[in-house]
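Question thread 4412

I'm putting together a teaching handout and wanted feedback from people who do this every day. The idea is simple: show students a protein as raw sequence, then show them the structure tokens that encode its fold, then repeat with a second protein so they can compare. Below is the first pair exactly as I plan to print it.
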Amino acid sequence: MLKLVKRLINMSDMYKGKLKWAIVISFFEGIFTISPQILVMLTVYKIVTSTIEFNDIWLVTALLFLSVILKAITRRIVDGLQSGTGYQIFADERMKIGEHLKRLPMGYFAQGTVGDVTAVVTSDIIFAEQFGMSTMSKIVNAYVSMFLGSIMMLFFDWRIGLIAIITFILGSRALGNMDKVALKHSKLRQDGMGRLIGSVIEYVKGIAVIKAFHMTNKRSKRIKKEFKKYRDISINFEQSFSKTYVSFHNWFALGIALVVLTVSWLYVGKEIDKTFALMIIIYIFEFFLPFQVLGSVAALARIMEAGLNRYDNIMKAKIIDEDGKDIKINKFDIEFKNVSFRYEEDDVISNINFKVPAKSMTALVGKSGCGKTTVTNLVARFWDVQQGEVLIGGVNVKEMTCDSLLKNISMVFQNVYLFNDTIINNIKFGKPDATKDEVIRACKKARCYDFIMNLENGFDTVVDEGGKSLSGGEKQRISIARAILKDAPIVLLDEATASVDPDNEKYIQQAINELVKEKTLIVIAHKLSTVRNAQQILVMDEGKIIEQGVHKDLIKQKGMYNIFWQRRTKARSWKIQKA
């Protein structure tokens, strides 16, 4: 339990002092909590022994009133130091995990970790935020009350005090067993939650495909199976935990029974008087309560700890630019030198070499899966090469931080993602401090200004998550506006006109022309007609560059590019004949 308190304090960074002060003040709160009980016991003693006087009544009343006021004040100070600080701590942790996730290699998210990441952000941090500080307060108060109560009992009678201390020791061991069970099952529970969330996300994201291929029943069975697994894990957790929970409370029931037995034995043996015996018997039922509270928070504490363990595992994942430096690039040519790359065990790119001069256009052509997209991912350092170097302006991208690299790169791909936010904020992703006029100019260049202004709330229109409320062409033009606003010297373009209708294609092509002016451009070509004027065309096959040159030269070589070109030419000339 105390390890959790230490862990929360270590997480607090700049707020550590506040939490330590809260623990110190909790000690005094414990004194003010136990003071009324002592005063009541003394009052009962004086009443029974007929030694109470008016001065005693006024003194006890004043001290009771003072202890209640001081307890309320210390409680308010502790709450202020802990609760408010707790929200600040976990607000900072959210920013930390966001900063960390953006610096992880894309391979991390391909290893089945999406469910865990989602669970940490949407569940674990929220759980710790809601219950962390209150749980810490209960733990501290329980140990403070145990310490002060034991001293008080020893002061009254060493034998009764010894029974109380032994009871606390045995209760602490039972609490340790509860911790072990809770820790084991909390991890199983959190892992099950991660798998469940991952399954639900996969189902929701793929619902269109699932419906199209009549797989709804089969896929829903898989999710139902995960729900059943999570249910069984949760039930097993409760069953296992209940046994140790009962054992924990049984020790205190035994402690109370031993104290009553000992007090009775001492009274019969004339070692204590009737009044003292009565006070102890009444008080002992309240004495163990603060520490027994730990039994009710043990499960919460371990669920929280399992969540924090998962959070720590994510934060321990090695970031891709751990050794990177903030380097300012002055030249924007791109070079691949003997680059090889593989996803796990599968080779995707094998020993490729090429140069992209600054302010020129290089097109990547080839069959699906030949490595075109991987080339752009390596330029942006979404992945790191296993062999060779990727250089920008003569600087190896591995020497740079992700921020110093990516501020020089704009990316426009076919699958555009827009956030559940206003259109203007989605566009400002390219330049968060941009003015409204700058956004408008970018939108006009991207040929999206007119349709935005025709929306009900214009730039303040909120789009659905993923941009579902807009057409594909509209989303594409907004993404191009975002890239134009960023005005990065390097543009990576997965040809955006490949799957749009002719009307949108015209506007998107005009927008792209505005985007790539005076830029270093790498474009993944789907329609060869759009890249025939490129200064360089790289034809890829099975991760290798098999042809390289300009359009007219590649046509003459009668190789794969010529085959692609001939197929495209024939496809444009096809007609539907009447039967």
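The second pair follows. I'd like the answer to focus on this one:
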Amino acid sequence: MARLKGWRTLRLAIGAMLLSQLLGGTPARAINERAHWPWGVRVRAWQEAEVWEALEKGWYLNVGPTGIRARITHEHPASFTVRYVFEDSPAHGRIHPGDIIVGANGEVMETPHQFGRGRGIDGWDGPLVEMARLIEDSQANDGQLELIVWRNGNEEERETVALQIRPRERFSRTFPFDCSRSDDLVAQLTAALVAEYERNGNRWGDSHVQAHSLLALMASGEPEHEAMIQEFRREAADYRTRGVESQAGLPAWEYGYMGVVLGELFTRYADERLLPAIESLGEYYVHGADPASGSYSHKPFPAIRQRVAHGGGLGYGPMATPGGLAMLAMSIWRVNGLGIPTTAHERLHQSYLRNTFPDGVRAGYSFRNRDAVVIALEDGSRARSPRGCGFFVQQGMENLGAYTVRHPRNGSVIDPPEWLTDEADTNLVYDISAPEPGIYGSPHVRYIVRKSPIPEPEGPFETTRGFARAATGVGALAHMIGNDDRPSWGYLGDHAARSCALDPRNWLSGHASSSIHQLWVALAAARAGEDLFREFMEQVRWWFVMQEDHRGTYFVVPDRDYVVNSDIRHGPHMLPTANAAIILSLPRRQLLITGADVGTAEAPESGAGAAQASATRRTDP
């Protein structure tokens, strides 16, 4: 299991203050008006060691394959102020820290970068986009790039400095389709992933880095990677979750990603040895979810409630993207005819419906919650779960006896909402008993969640608003893969895909990991129709030029204004490298998430996975 140890940990815990900034709770600030951010951040990757040693810190902008790292400043917002030049790069000895790059190939860049969010300003217009075009021109012209430079920032010392960069054909008008440059990059990038895997002791890193990298090898269809993929498949057969009562680790991301990877491996090999691992994840998808949001916190719901019962806190709230990944995993399993936890699948569908609006799907950091209250019972023998604290009560609200209604977070007594009694037959009940009375005034506590299903869409939506977030993108795939027999799911999936495609300017604007948002938004946009996808790719074309570094990997770009980004610790090169490989592999259609057409199948009532599916129907709300 050595090669799966990267699935075991993921630490993306971000403070509440930073979260409120991401959700618009504080005034926007320009990236270089915050003390040394991102320029004062150390990027945790061996590729960045030179920068650490020379400058101690620094998360600077990559200027394509030149080997230059730079800042964009308020003083020179249409230019690059050079901060470092790598020794083994084309620019070494020709460009120096302190130089300001104002253009290339006889053309001066004129569009300033627009700093600040929350003021109607989005996108990456400015020197990143303009230089990308100039570099691509040079690559198509035998790699001759002539930079226009102000030496040491002095406008009076203007020079033209010629660099030799790697020649490449232009991206085609329809890239990544019918594009030789895309094909060449896929081979280059997957080879880099393999080299990093071997360098790093036969692992890539944490769960999302591991998943994106393995999916990139599979998406490429390159035969030289088949042996490595086969070895992952064999080791994945031994994978099991740590159980829904475990307090260990932060498993929400690991379990979501592992479900997708196992589903794609099963699609590829139909290996029944993977089924116990899949069933282990199915148990988590059923019982680990937060009942009000339908999604997952860093720890499973029973583990959280057991911690609270013993005096601990509720901890981090449930996040939408891990729920979307779990739903996508179940959709992939359904394609393969496996028994799935049906109501967990549908519960997440309802979570997406709660974030669906006539103009677009807006599934961001978290899903909108269902109504919920806590009731403190006088008779603790009523409405118990045989599995104990944190688990579903099958008899629901029947014969509860006397109780007091409490606020679920602070424990204060509140008036009973009308739905509590009016919808008693459908309300969901969870046993959250505790050894001591605690804030609810009784140890005999039940969590009541209003089921209140949202009606299914009756026809296609007219999508007019973009929302490029990972949860929206994953939700598009989760609804469009394996659910052709459900027209309303298709309507929602199309709506979510178009929401992603309509927002390319915020492609990298997501909480904690811009790379997670980048991948799933792009894969969803690819399903939004040819015209929308074409426009989306043209808007993000700059990234495929500017973020390829001089060594042939991709480097994570600081989110346009927000620097809260775990990618500087988790895969600053490998995540964007894997993402580029997967997106550029779309024409190969090797995975369900990249467009493979394997057909749709109903979950069976017998055979592989049936026992798990049957058990789910008995216990899952």
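Top answer:
Good format. For the second protein you could add a caption like this: The chain has a mean pLDDT of 89. Residues 372-449 form one domain.
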